[in-house]
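> example.struct
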């Protein structure tokens, strides 16, 4: 594999892992619970479970792909399938933010715009790496 693909692969999975790790702390950073009536404990628990499971899945899959990076770059199909799945997750996130349900600009417009740009950029980079993987496998 080309060195540029090697670098992009690791940039994308490291950024994905960092987002997964960061997401564990999002409820406290953005004070989610201040917006929810405390009598709706089931809603709060459901939001927590969803956030923690998403965070663990994103962080864990990304760390796994970092550890297995050498195999992916050697075109191991099984590892590339996991990368393609992670790419699909980020593509879905990008489409969700861009076309389906954009993040509200209130209360912090810069955070909403930053998330939109970052998720779209990461999705595009991951699609590029995925296409390179698919082309290389077909040539192999």
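> example.seq
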């Amino acid at each position: 594999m080309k060195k540029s693909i090697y670098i992009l692969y690791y940039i994308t999975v490291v950024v994905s892992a960092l987002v997964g790790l960061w997401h564990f702390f999002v409820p406290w950073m953005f004070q989610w619970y201040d917006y929810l009536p405390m009598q709706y404990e089931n809603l709060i628990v459901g939001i927590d479970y969803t956030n923690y499971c998403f965070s663990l899945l994103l962080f864990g899959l990304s760390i796994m792909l970092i550890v297995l990076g050498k195999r992916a770059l050697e075109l191991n199909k099984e590892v590339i399938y996991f990368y393609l799945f992670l790419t699909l997750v980020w593509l879905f996130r990008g489409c969700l933010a861009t076309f389906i349900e954009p993040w509200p600009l209130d209360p912090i417009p810069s955070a909403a715009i930053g998330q939109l740009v970052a998720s779209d950029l990461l999705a595009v980079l991951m699609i590029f790496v995925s296409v390179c993987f698919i082309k290389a496998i077909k040539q192999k």
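> remarks
Helices lie at 3-23, 26-29, 41-67, 69-73, 77-100, 109-139.
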